[in-house]
Structures are given as C-alpha cells and as structure tokens.
Amino acid sequence: MVRDTGSWTLQSVLQRHGLGPVAGVDEAGRGASAGPLVVASCVLRPADAKVLDGLTDSKLLTPAAREYWYGRIVQRALDRSVIVVPAAEVDRRGVHVANIEGMRRAVAALTSAPPGYVLTDGFPVRGFGRPALAVPKGDQVAACIAAASVLAKVTRDRLMTELDVEHGAYGFAVHKGYNTPEHEAALREHGPCPEHRFSFANVAATAGREAAMGLVHNEGVPEDAFGAAEEAAPDPWEPMEIVTGGAGR
C-alpha cells in the first residue's frame, strides 16, 4: 500500500477520520485591477496521490505546466466547480466580500461529491455549511487547494486572453490585468475599459473618480475584519456569473 505524504497528508488524515470528501478552494485575480475574479473548488480522489504527483500551487508552475495539470485535474477530479465574478460585481461588493461569497458558491456547486470538509488557502472562511480549516500556504501543502488554484488560474488566464481580442490596447493576454508597468502605461494612455475595476484606486484616478469607500481590495485581509460587511450584502448576484463543474472520469 502506498502511504500518502506531502501535499496529500492532510486530506488523507481527514478521509481516515470519516470527514471526507475533502474540497480545496482557491481564487485567481484578487489583486488585478482588470478582469474577473475567478474562484474554484475541487475534490480529488483519495487514491490519486501518485497519479497527481507534482501538482502544486499554480503560481509556481509555468503556463504550459498549468495547462497540463488543468487537463489532468478535469479528467481525474471527483468534482470541481468554477465561479467567475465579473469586474462590475467586484466593484459592487468589494473584492474581499466577492471572494468569500465566491468560495461559498464554489463549494455549494459541488453536487457530484458534496464535501464533508473544506480547506481554504491562508485565511478562515465561514458559511460553507460544513467544517472548514484555513491552511497556511495551502496551495503548496494541500493538493486539493493546489488543484483549485490551477482551475481558477487557467480559467482566468483564458478569459483574459479572450478579453485581449476585444480590448487589445491594454495587453490583457500578457499581464492578465495585473498592475504591471505596461498595464499602467496603457491605462494612462487609453483610460479604463468596461473590464477594469473602477473601485480600485489606480483605475478610479485614471477615470477621474474617487475610489468608493468601504470596499476592500487588500491581499490577505482576515475574514473576521469584514464579517459585518458580508452579512450586510444579501443582494443577488448579477446574471453574468458563470458556474462550471462536474466530475472527472
């Protein structure tokens, strides 16, 4: 019998104690000033540690490696879901609240293998309807979170490449909406397009506006600091939200 180690240890322990299936959740695009926020959740097969050996945080993989792992995850996952939150929704809610709600919706969309336990990357999230654990550097130490990070990153990169065709002046296919010098220069020259997040200070300044107060765009902000804001925003999501998912083979 092969003993699971490394990024599969936590999932294996939870499975052995009857707390599975175990879902990982992660996002891509939280810090970008253009394009959607994409949140993914994934449940991996407990016996797939050897088959998926080498899977890690999407940020540590080359674009070609991410595409490879994306295909493997789609093929092998017990269940997966992807939530796409448009820029306008990020503006309306604030990126932190949109991220938390996206995580909840991503887990709720896991209907082929409803999880008994949820692992999140870095900070605690409430409201999944089942136990959850925040894992420091989770996309490097928990394979199911790494899988979610790959699903989210590849989905978002593909969407940004599509947006580059429609808004070619900004170079979205290259920098994917993040605040690189090239993106900032294009933003100053052409002004923002509808895919920019107008609640971000740099976009608002270019558009001649003030960034909306009370919206959160910081990386790594503890959920507890904004719990009240989450509870105060029960309004429905815009119809542009996209949900994809399903079990692998």
What does it look like?
The chain has 249 residues and is an alpha/beta fold. It is 39% helix and 14% strand. The chain contains ten helices and six strands; from the N terminus they run αββαβααββααααααβ. The chain has helices spanning 9-16, 63-76, 87-93, 95-108, 138-141, 143-166, 172-175, 181-190, 201-206, 227-231; strands at residues 22-28, 37-43, 79-85, 117-121, 132-135, 242-245. The chain has a six-stranded mixed sheet, with helices on both faces. The longest helix has 24 residues, at 143-166. The two termini are 23 Å apart. The model is unreliable at 213-240 (pLDDT under 50).
- Annotation, overall tally of beta strands: 6
- The proportion of residues forming helix, as a percent range, comes to 25-40%
Strand content: 5-15%
- Estimate the mean pLDDT confidence: 86
Annotation field: number of helices: 10
**End-to-end gap:** 23 Å
| Strand order in the largest sheet | 5-4-1-2-3-6
Radius of gyration: 18 Å
Q: What is the overall shape?
A: elongated
Q: Outline the low-pLDDT stretches.
A: 213-240
User: What structural class do helix, strand and pairing data support?
Assistant: alpha/beta
Largest sheet: 6 strands, mixed
Order of helices and strands: HEEHEHHEEHHHHHHE
